[in-house]
Amino acid sequence: MAYSLIEHTADTGFRVTAGSVQGLFADAGMALAGIAGASGGRETVRTEVTVEGIDQADLLVRWLQELLYLMEVRRLRISRLEIPELGDTRMTAVVKGEYGSGPPAREIKGVTYHGLEIRRAGGGCEAVIIVDV
Amino acid sequence: MYRALENLSVRRLDKYRLEIRRQPPMLTCGVIYANARIEKDLKDGNVLRQVANVACLPGIIGPSLAMPDIHWGYGFPIGGVAAFSLDGGIISPGGVGYDINCGIRCITTRISMRELHPGVEDLLALLYSTIPSGVGSSTRGFRVGKRDLLDVLANGSRWALKQGLADREDLEAHEDGGCMEDADPEAVSERAIERGLPQLGTLGSGNHFLEIDVVEEIFDEDTARIFGLFEGQTVVLIHSGSRGLGHQVCDDYVHAMLSAGIRSGIELPDRQLACAPISGSQGKAYFGAMAAAANFAFANRQIMTHLVRQTFERYFSSSWERLGMRLLYDCCHNIAKKETITWDGRRIQACIHRKGATRALGPGDRRLPERFRKTGQPVLVPGDMGRSSYILAGAPGAKETFSSACHGAGRLLSRQQAKKLGRGRSILDELKGRGVHAMAASRGTLAEEAPDAYKDVAEVVSTITGAGICRAVARLKPLAMVKG
Q1: Residue A7, Cα to own-chain centre: how many angstroms?
Q2: Partners of residue A62 in chain B, C-beta under 8 Å
Q3: pLDDT digits (tens, 9 = 90+) for A45-103
Q4: B200 Cβ under 8 Å from any chain A Cβ
Q5: What sign does the CA torsion over B86, B58, A115, B266 have?
Q6: Choices 3.40.50.970, 3.40.190.10, 3.55.10.10, 3.90.920.10: CATH for A2-132
Q7: What is the pLDDT of residue B66?
Q8: CB spacing of A103 vs B136 below 8 angstroms
Q9: Hey, where are the domains in chain B?
C-alpha cells in the first residue's frame, strides 16, 4: 500500500498510487482505515460490499463512504480489502477484519469529491482524496 | 487595479474588502473580507478558486462572499456565504457541509472569575466526566429511541423543552427558536438515523469544544448590559454539531444530486458543489433533511447545556437559575436558510448558504427576540485555545453580507503542519503557561488544534467590525476547556 498525506488547511487529504485501478481502490480503503486508526487486526469477519455510481471517481467516493460506515457504526477494524469486480459504474469488494470494542481513534465526517480525479500515468494510477475531519 | 492570481484577477476595494473579478463561467464577482494581514494568508490559490466556483452556481444573487476567517475547504470555502434565488436558484449540500448546523452557544453566569478560579481544574474535570466527548462519543445518562429521535428531528430544542432540558427563554435565544419548521424527518435516511441515535448529547471530536471563559474586556457597555455581560464574569461556550446524522444526510444528498445533475448534463466546477433547484423535489427533500439535521444539532447543544448546568449546580451547590446560567445565544455555522433579502433595491426570497459563517442580524430585525432588537444579534467568534474569543453584535452594514459574519479565527496551518510544529512540545503545558487548563480525549487533536494553527482572531474581528458588519461588544479569555 502506498499513500501519503497531503496538506489541506481545513481537513485531511491523501494521495494513493497503485499499479491498477483495483489496487488503487483497495489501497485507498486501507489508507482511509489507517487515517481513522481502524486498520490491522485479525480476519475474523468477512463482508461483501457492492457499490454503484456514475463513474469510477464516484465509485471510489461511495466505496470509501461504505468503509467509513463499517468502521464507525459496525466498529469494524479492517485488515484486508479485495476488489474482485470493478466496472465503470459498479464494483464489488470483500472486506476482512474484526469487530473492535470501540469507535475508530479518529473521526472522519465524510469523504469528499473535492478535486477528485483518477489519473492514469506510467502504467499505474493515482488519486488525491480529501476527507472532512 | 486587478492582479492575476491562479488565473483569477483580484483587486483591493478598500481596507477591508478584496474583489475577485467576474470572468466566465462566473455569474458574479467574489468579495472577500480581508485586511492586509489576512490577505497575506490568502496566497493559496485554492481558496480563491473556491470563492470563484461558488460564483458559477445558477441563481446566485449578489457576489460570492467570503468572511475574514476564510480558508480552503471542499466545495465552498470555509467562511463562504452565498444567496440563491428561490426562483431559479439552487441548494447545495456541499455548500452547507457534512456537519450540518455545527454551531456555538454562550451561556452567561453570575459567577465571577474570582469565585471560580481556585477550583477551575476541579470543575473542568467534572465537566469532562459529564459531557461525552471524543470520537464516536455516545449518549450518556439517558436513552433515546428511534421515536424520540424522530421527535428531535421534527422539533429540535422544542423537544428538549418538553423533556425538561430547556426553558422557554433558552428557545428564544436560538436561531429559529431552536426549531427549523421545514424539517422533514422522512427525508432523513435510516442510515443517518442509525448514525445519530447513539450520539445525541455528545460533543464529538476535532474542533468541537466546551470552554469556560472570563469576560476580559467590555467594548460597548450598553450592549454588554443587554447581553448580560460584565468584566470578570465567567461564561461557557459550547461548540458542536449534528454528529454522524448530519454527516450522513450530506453524503446521501451529494450523491443523489450528483447523479441527477450528471444525467441532466449539468457541468460543475467541483463535484462537491453538486446541487439541485431549490424549488424542485430533490432540493425540497434536501432542505427538509438538512433542517431535520439542524434540529438534531440544536437539541444536541441544548442537552449539553443542561448537563453543564447540572455540573455547575453540583459544583457550586446552587441552582442554575441562582447561578444566572442564561443562554445568551446559539449561532448556527453550517446551514442553508430561506430568508428575505434586499438586493439592488428589490426584496428577494433567497436561500442563504453559510459554510463556516454565522448569521449576524442587524438592529431592528424582527427575527430577533425583543431584548436584542436594539442591539443586533449576538455574534460569537471563538478564537483558538490560547488566545481570545469575541462577542460581537450584528450591525446595520450586515445587509451587504445577507446578515452574515465570521464564525471563528479560521485555520492557518494544515493539521499535519500543526502536528509537525507540535512535535516535542507539550501543548497542555504551553496552555497552562498561558493560564488555560485543557482536557482532551485525544493528544493528537490537541496538537492539531494548537493556537499557532489558527489565524489571530483579533485580525478577523477587526476586519469584520471595520467593514461595519458587526460591532465589538466583549473579549473573552479562555480559562479551561474540554476538547473532543
Answers
A1: 19
A2: 255
A3: 999 999 999 999 999 999 999 999 999 999 999 999 999 999 999 999 999 999 988 88
A4: no
A5: positive
A6: 3.55.10.10
A7: 98
A8: yes
A9: 3-95, 103-483
Question: Which residue in A5, A113, A128, A129 has the most chain B C-beta atoms within 10 A of its own C-beta, making it the best mutation to test that interface?
Answer: A113
Domain ranges of chain A: 2-132
DSSP state of B206: T
Average pLDDT for chain B: 93
Q: What is the pTM of this model?
A: 0.95
The residue-averaged pLDDT of B114-140 equals 86
Residue type, B273: L
Alpha carbons B202 and B98: distance in angstroms, whole number: 17
Give the Å distances, CA to CA, from B387 to B107, B210, B384, B458: 19, 15, 6, 9
- For chain A, the farthest-separated pair of C-alpha atoms sits apart, in whole angstroms, at 42
Mapped onto helix, strand or coil, the DSSP state of residue B173 is: coil
- Position B391, amino acid: I
Residue B83 DSSP symbol? E
* Stretch B202-225: mean pLDDT: 95
Q: Which CATH superfamily is domain B103-483 in?
A: tRNA-splicing ligase RtcB (3.90.1860.10)
pLDDT 10s digits, B286-304: 999 999 999 999 999 999 9
- Quote the ipTM score: 0.91
Indicate yes or no: CB of A9 within 8 angstroms of CB of B413: yes
Catalytic residue from among B174, B239, B353, B407:
B407
> Which residue of A62, A102, A112 is in closest CB contact with B272?
A112
> Please, are residues B463 and B38 in contact by the beta-carbon 8 Å criterion?
yes
Q: Which three cell numbers stand for residue B260?
A: 441527477
